[in-house]
C-alpha cells in the first residue's frame, strides 16, 4: 500500500495532479481542499495517499492533511458512498464544517453536495455522528500562489463536472464566480461556496 508520497509537483489540473517521485510519475486524484493549498508546479510537496483497488480499477488519491484522508476513508464506510462522493464532500466543506453538519443533523446542507440525496445525508448523520468527533485539523500547510493557467475558466468547469455538477449548473456557477485574473482554484472555491448556499 502507498501511504505517503514526497516529490515534485509536475502538473495540477483539478481534480488530477501529477507528482514526480524520483523519476516515477504518480497520477493522483485530489479534493479541491488540497488543490487550494498546493504549491506551484515545480515545487516539492508531501501528500498522504489512499490507494484503492477494485475489480476493474486501481486509483490513488492524495491529501495534504491527515484529517482529510481520515474523513475520506470514514465517508466510504457509509452505505452508498464511494470515492467520488467522498471527494465531493471534501471539495465542498472543510473537515470541521462536515463534522458540525453531521453533529447538528443538517440534512439540507449535506444534500447541497453533488451526489448526496436526502437518504444518503440521513445515513451519513446516523452512521457518522459518533465518528466525526475525532476528526480535527492536521498539518495545514501555508497556502502558496501558483502560476495562472492558460484557461482557468475551462479548467474550473472540468473540475466541477468531475465533482458531479451537471454541465448547465457548472456553466452558471463558473460564470457567476469567475473574475478577471482568477486562477482555476479561485473560481472553483467561489463556485463551491455559492453552490452550497
Can you give a write-up of this model?
The protein folds into three domains: 4-63, Nucleic acid-binding proteins (OB fold (Dihydrolipoamide Acetyltransferase, E2P)), CATH 2.40.50.140; 67-134, 5' to 3' exonuclease, C-terminal subdomain (DNA polymerase, domain 1); 152-195, Ubiquitin-associated (UBA) domain (Helicase, Ruva Protein, domain 3, Orthogonal Bundle), CATH 1.10.8. Residues 137-150 have low confidence and may be disordered. By secondary structure, it is an alpha+beta fold. Helix 2 (66-75) crosses helix 3 (83-92), helix 7 crosses helix 9 (184-195) and helix 8 (167-177) crosses helix 9. The protein is built from nine helices and five strands, in the order E-E-E-H-E-E-H-H-H-H-H-H-H-H. The protein has a five-stranded antiparallel beta sheet. It has helices at residues 32-35, 66-75, 83-92, 95-104, 107-110, 118-128, 152-162, 167-177, 184-195; strands at 4-13, 16-21, 24-29, 44-53, 58-63.
Amino acid at each position: 500500500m502507498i501511504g505517503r508520497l514526497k516529490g515534485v509537483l509536475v502538473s495540477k489540473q483539478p481534480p488530477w495532479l501529477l507528482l514526480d517521485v524520483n523519476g516515477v510519475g504518480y497520477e493522483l486524484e485530489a479534493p479541491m481542499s488540497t488543490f487550494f493549498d498546493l504549491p506551484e508546479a515545480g515545487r516539492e510537496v508531501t501528500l498522504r495517499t489512499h490507494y484503492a483497488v477494485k475489480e476493474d480499477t486501481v486509483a490513488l488519491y492524495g491529501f495534504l492533511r491527515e484529517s482529510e484522508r481520515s474523513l475520506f476513508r470514514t465517508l466510504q464506510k457509509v452505505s452508498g458512498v464511494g470515492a467520488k462522493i467522498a471527494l465531493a464532500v471534501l471539495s465542498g466543506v472543510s473537515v470541521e464544517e462536515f463534522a458540525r453538519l453531521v453533529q447538528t443533523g443538517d440534512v439540507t446542507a449535506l444534500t447541497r453536495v453533488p451526489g448526496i440525496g436526502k437518504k444518503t445525508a440521513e445515513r451519513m448523520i446516523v452512521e457518522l455522528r459518533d465518528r466525526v468527533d475525532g476528526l480535527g485539523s492536521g498539518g495545514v500547510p501555508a497556502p502558496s500562489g501558483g502560476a495562472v493557467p492558460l484557461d482557468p475558466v475551462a479548467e474550473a468547469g472540468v473540475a466541477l463536472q468531475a465533482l458531479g455538477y451537471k454541465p448547465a449548473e457548472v456553466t452558471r456557477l463558473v460564470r457567476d464566480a469567475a473574475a478577471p485574473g482568477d486562477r482555476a482554484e479561485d473560481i472553483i472555491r467561489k463556485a463551491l461556496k455559492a453552490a452550497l448556499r
